[in-house]
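Project standup — Tuesday

K.O.: blocked on the structure for the chain from last sprint. Re-posting the sequence here as requested.
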Amino acid sequence: MDDPKKDIALSSITQDIITLIATAKSSALTYVNSSLTLLYWQIGKRLLSAGLRDNAAKYGDRAVENISTFLVNEYGQGFNYSSLHRMMRFAELIPDQEIVATLSQDLSWSHFVILITLRESLARDFYIEMCRLERWSVRQLRKSIDSMLFERVALSKKPEGMIRAELDSLQKGEFSSNLVFKDPYLLDFLGLKQAYSENDLEMAILREMESFILELGSGFTFVERQKRMIIDGEDFHLDLLFYHRKLRRLIAIELKLGKFKAAYKGQMELYLRWLDKHDRAAQEESPLGIILCSVKGLETVELLELDKSGIHVAEYLTDLPPKDLLVAKLDRTIKEAREKYNVLQIEDKQ
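H.V.: unblocked you, prediction finished:
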C-alpha cells in the first residue's frame, strides 16, 4: 500500500523542480550555457536535500524514477533517471553555488558530465582548471583524460599538496610554468615505431606541428626550427623555439634520444643565455628551456637542480604504455616525493 506521506513529499519535490525549470525558462538567458548548468545544479541540490542520493534506499531510488518519469513527459529526455543522478552527483561534488556560477562561464554542462565521473578530487580539480585556463572543448577534455594527462603531470610534481597549491594560485589568477610543462609528453601521433634519429623526431614534429602544440598545451606559438646562434664565431642550432603568451617567455626545446646526460644542461643554459641577451623583448620574462629525452634520469636531474636554471627535463613517449604500468610508476614517484618532502620538512623544523 502506498504511503500518502511519501506521495506528498514526492509531489513537493517535483513541484520545486518544476518551479526551478519555469524560472529558468522565463529568463532571457534560458539558452545560455551558464543558466542551464546552474539549473541542473539547483535540481541536483534539491534532490540531495530530500535525501534521494542513496541508491541503496529503495524509496529514494523509486522517488527519483517517479520524478524523472514526470519530468521527461513534461520537458524531455534531458531529465531522465540517469540525468537526475548526474545532477545530484554534480551538486554533491561542487556544493557551492557561487563556484558553480563562476565555472559555468567557461565550462559547459557537457564538460561537467565528464568531470563528475572522475573519482579523485585532485584530478577533477586539475581538469577543471585546465578547461578554464586553456579553453578546452569537450573533445579536448576527453582526449586529455584518455591520454592520462593528470597522471603525466603528477609524475613531474612533488607531493599532492604542491599540485593543490598551484591550482589554488591559478584560481587567484596567478599563472605558473609548473602546470604548463608536463612529464612525460605523449607523442604517439608522430608514428615513430621503429628506430629513428633526432632528425627524424624533429621532422615528424614539424609535420605534425598542430598536434605537437596541442600536446604542449594552449598558449604556445611556434617561432622557429634550428634557431641559429653564433657564439665566438661558431654556429649553434636550437632544435625548436616557441613563445608562450601567458608566461610571456620564449621556450627553447631540445630533442634528445636515449637517456638524459648532464652535458645537456650546459648546452641548454648556453642557448637560454643567448636568447635572453639577443632575442628577449623588453616586456618579456627570461626564456625557459625544455629538454625532451626518451629516458629522464631522475637522480641526475635532481643533483643538477635544473629548476634553478629555468630548465625542465621531461620524457617523451611515442606510444602510451599500458595504464597499469603508468599508474604504478606514478605511485612510486609520489611515494618517493612524499618521503623526500617529509625529510625536508623535518630538517626545516630543526
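K.O.: great, moving the ticket to review. The mean pLDDT is 79. The longest strand covers residues 220-231.
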